[in-house]
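Example S7 (structure tokens).
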């Protein structure tokens, strides 16, 4: 019989088969097949009564979780033995049954007798009745489906393709006419040429309705197989365009939400649902779950659940359907009536037993406790037409209370503080100087020391703040004069003359104006002339930062010794401006000389005439004395005519010196002064006579890549754009990005390192943090992007310091050049710029996995194709959000591989 004759055969009944045979046929399908098909009467009770949330293979956060649970709650999809198998492919006959359920047509099937289909049009027995119904309802096109090409293999058990599902969806929505209009338009996808001509219109409409999206590389993959999770998502999204009303689905406004119950009002009818531990909550604007606490009364929702037990709740409009009005309260009248005063008398409002009444503090009260002439705010619902009052709050009156909350803002001019109390209410009160007390851990605070965000306990009497106790502070600052400094404490004198002692946190930051990388020893502690400082305190009241605001000292850098009297310990020096100064040394003077530890007894032998020294003094008392062997600062200027340079020292002073004898710059031999840019950080090592720079060492920070690591010999070989170098790390500090000390064993080949150099001598090594994963979002306007790491966490990156994007060897500087399909490796460069390296990718057909070499073998399009690839030990293999094992990949599977240094770090199954 010709194919043409077969296609014209009527769809008629034939001899009835035993129901048990149909059941048996359904049971022999793979377990996955039952997800979209009722399996048998014996399992119906367990599959159809499964509550939402019980699919053990659909984990919280799974990308299609919302859509699977929604359709499961409506009975459009059902589980089998507690499993959904979201990653399995869907057959055409399964998709037909799901579409009929979506259209609420499954009950129209005639299961009392079997049906005849063309001999070569093969469908499993269980599905034949449904396929016939689909043809009868126009869900399937007989000419297309029964074409000769479609009869070469089993039609029913064939995997449903993405373009075939697009047609099924649009037909299920009754929008075939729209597809006919759009049939001649290109889809806009890169693989538009692969789209079947008779499917192009359906794809266009599906995309326009936002039912289907493209894949990586702007592809639609029209012949790609559709998974169960994808199909559930397609039909779930399609419900927004469907006019079918499902029996266990209700939409409306939440009229009451309390005590584990949710009531929905719609067109004069109220339905109440019980909420349970398995109830799933979502919003129409997001794929992620929300909590019950995120749902507010009087918002619009869709609720799905049989026998009034809610399985699925979706907020469709988060705007509360209420209006607010305020006025002067008059009285509570009989019959649940409230009266407000108006210009012409009284205005009447209605309430019922569900109406809440609260005072100005948000505490529940009884209607009878409302006081005449109080200012009150009513909230009235606007969804039912009755305008019932749902909430009454007293907004003014005398407030006396003690409560907890957080500081929202502080108005120092108006002397008021805005709090957010424990109930979530924002309220503002004033304080009075002299009577209001502010404290933190027994210390009295000034209002200027209070910080927004701090947790507090506050007392209000007669509407005035009487006390505020900071119970869990955030960072705050205090100021004073530094008088003592130890390894664990700092002592300062406050403006009122009292002394305060604070504990130092681990590694507090030191900030001194005009000084690079200052340390604690650079601070001046003195009861008379100590630094005026600002201390930043953490929530534990420990000092995390010391900043010098001003200094009272005299500093003479590069001063020349005129005379030193060892008996009187008077030192006469001449500064660089040829002015003489006399200072006196004592036992508290800090004496410094490179390579020696002088004291007052032997320092005199060093202080010979014309010796260069650095002196810090308060009045005539010398705080520190350093014999100059080197100067540290920046190169401020170069005068080629006089062959002199100007150094701006770390203490802010300047020195003019002759050209240095040698230049020491890492990575460059035979350096000259022209190789040193003005503004470079330098160290000038002086000759014995102290008037000539023997070596000008240029301080640099370079980002290098670890080539080899030998922890046994403390040797590290690194690569950089100028070549390779070997570093002896035995005495070098090695830290991570957080500044914590690490061992050389924590560094591995391929890691990036920031190395600081003093000339050609390395000073410190810092391991650079690398983040690798897929870009989740890019906001070029805000200079921000989010990357989902392969480990699963999402990291946000602000790139205000500049960005360099490296793709296929080319570098660009615009975030707009990135897409959410890119896989990237991100790190910070030494200059603060964000370096983003886009990982290369290859699309291949899978062949096999070689476990002996941990490599993956793909099929070759030609003999020149590379076909064997090394896998990373933690390679991420997935389809959508479903993680796969390499053993689950099958021959001819289409895969995309992403590489990091020629190692496969991610495989996406198409």
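Recovered sequence:
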């Amino acid at each position: 019989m010709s194919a043409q004759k077969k296609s014209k055969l009527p769809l008629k009944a034939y001899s009835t088969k035993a129901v048990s045979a149909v059941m048996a046929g359904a049971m022999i399908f793979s377990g996955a097949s039952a997800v979209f098909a009722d399996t048998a009467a014996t399992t119906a009770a367990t599959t159809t009564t499964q509550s939402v949330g019980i699919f053990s293979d659909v984990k919280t956060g799974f990308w299609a979780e919302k859509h699977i649970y929604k359709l499961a709650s409506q009975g459009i999809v059902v589980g089998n033995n507690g499993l959904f198998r979201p990653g399995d492919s869907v057959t055409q006959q399964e998709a037909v049954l799901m579409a009929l359920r979506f259209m609420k047509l499954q009950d129209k099937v005639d299961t009392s007798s079997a049906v005849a289909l063309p001999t070569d049009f093969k469908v499993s027995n269980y599905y034949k009745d449904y396929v016939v119904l689909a043809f009868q309802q126009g869900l399937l096109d007989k000419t297309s489906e029964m074409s000769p090409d479609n009869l070469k293999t089993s039609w029913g058990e064939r995997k449903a393709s993405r373009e075939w599902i697009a047609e099924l969806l649009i037909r299920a929505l009754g929008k075939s006419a729209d597809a006919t209009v759009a049939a001649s338009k290109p889809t806009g996808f890169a693989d538009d040429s692969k789209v079947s001509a008779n499917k192009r219109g359906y794809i266009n409409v599906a995309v326009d309705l936002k039912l289907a999206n493209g894949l990586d590389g702007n592809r639609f993959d029209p012949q790609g197989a559709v998974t169960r999770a994808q199909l559930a998502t397609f039909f779930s999204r399609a419900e927004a365009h469907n006019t079918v009303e499902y029996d266990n689905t209700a939409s409306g406004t939440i009229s009451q939400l309390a005590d584990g119950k949710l009531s929905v009002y719609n067109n004069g009818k109220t339905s109440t649902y019980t909420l349970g531990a398995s109830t799933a909550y979502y919003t129409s604007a997001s794929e992620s779950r929300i909590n019950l606490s995120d749902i507010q009364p009087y918002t619009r929702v869709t609720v799905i659940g049989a026998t009034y037990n809610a399985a699925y709740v979706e907020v469709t409009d988060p705007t509360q359907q209420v209006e607010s009005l305020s006025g002067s309260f008059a009285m509570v009248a009989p019959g649940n009536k409230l009266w407000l005063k108006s210009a012409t008398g009284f205005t009447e409002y209605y309430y019922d037993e569900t109406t809440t009444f609260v005072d100005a503090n948000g505490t529940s009260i009884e209607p009878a406790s409302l006081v005449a002439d109080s200012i009150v705010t009513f909230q009235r619902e606007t969804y039912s037409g009755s305008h019932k009052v749902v909430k009454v709050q007293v907004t003014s009156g005398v407030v006396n209370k003690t409560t907890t909350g957080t500081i929202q803002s502080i108005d120092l001019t108006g002397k008021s503080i805005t709090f957010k109390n424990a109930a979530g209410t924002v309220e503002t009160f004033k304080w009075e100087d002299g009577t209001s007390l502010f404290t933190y851990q027994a210390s009295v605070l000034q209002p200027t020391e209070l910080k927004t965000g701090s947790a507090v306990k506050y007392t209000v009497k007669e509407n005035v703040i009487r006390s505020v106790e900071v119970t869990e502070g955030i960072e705050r600052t205090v100021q004073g004069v530094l008088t003592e400094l130890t390894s664990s404490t700092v002592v300062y004198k406050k403006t009122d003359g009292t002394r305060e002692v604070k504990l130092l946190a681990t590694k507090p930051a030191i900030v001194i104006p005009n000084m690079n990388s200052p340390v604690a020893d650079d601070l001046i502690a003195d009861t008379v002339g100590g630094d005026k400082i600002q201390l930043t305190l953490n929530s534990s009241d420990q000092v995390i930062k010391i900043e010098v605001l001003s200094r009272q000292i005299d500093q003479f850098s590069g001063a020349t010794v005129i005379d030193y009297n060892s008996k009187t310990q008077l030192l006469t020096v001449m500064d660089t401006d040829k002015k003489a100064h006399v200072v006196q040394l004592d036992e508290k003077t800090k004496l410094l000389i490179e390579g020696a530890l002088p004291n007052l007894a032997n320092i005199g032998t060093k202080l010979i005439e014309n010796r260069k020294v650095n002196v810090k003094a308060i009045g005539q008392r010398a705080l520190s004395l350093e014999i100059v062997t080197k100067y540290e600062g920046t190169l401020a200027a170069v005068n080629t005519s006089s062959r002199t340079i100007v150094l701006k020292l770390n203490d802010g002073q300047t020195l003019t010196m002759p050209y240095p004898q040698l230049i020491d710059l890492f990575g460059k031999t035979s350096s000259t002064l022209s190789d040193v840019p003005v503004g470079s950080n330098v160290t000038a090592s002086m000759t014995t006579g102290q008037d000539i720079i023997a070596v000008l060492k240029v301080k640099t920070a370079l980002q290098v890549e670890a080539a080899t690591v030998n922890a046994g010999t403390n040797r590290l070989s690194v690569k950089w754009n100028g070549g390779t170098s070997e570093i002896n790390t035995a005495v070098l500090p090695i830290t991570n990005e957080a500044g914590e000390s690490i061992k050389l064993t924590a560094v591995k080949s391929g890691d990036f390192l920031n190395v600081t150099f003093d000339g050609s001598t390395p000073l410190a090594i810092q391991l650079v943090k690398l983040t690798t994963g897929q870009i989740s979002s890019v906001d070029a306007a805000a200079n921000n992007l989010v990357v989902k790491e392969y480990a699963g966490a999402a990291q946000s990156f602000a790139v205000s310091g500049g960005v360099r994007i490296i793709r296929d060897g080319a570098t660009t500087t615009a975030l707009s050049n990135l897409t959410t399909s890119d896989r990237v490796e991100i790190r910070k460069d030494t200059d603060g710029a964000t370096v983003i390296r886009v990982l290369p990718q290859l699309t291949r057909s899978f062949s096999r996995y070689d476990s002996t070499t941990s490599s993956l073998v793909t099929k070759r399009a030609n003999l020149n194709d590379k076909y064997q690839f090394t896998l990373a030990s933690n390679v991420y293999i997935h389809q959508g959000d479903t993680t796969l094992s390499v053993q689950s990949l099958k021959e001819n599977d289409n895969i995309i591989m992403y590489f990091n240094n020629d190692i496969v770090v991610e495989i996406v199954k198409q």
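Notes on this example. The two ends are 39 Å apart (CA to CA).
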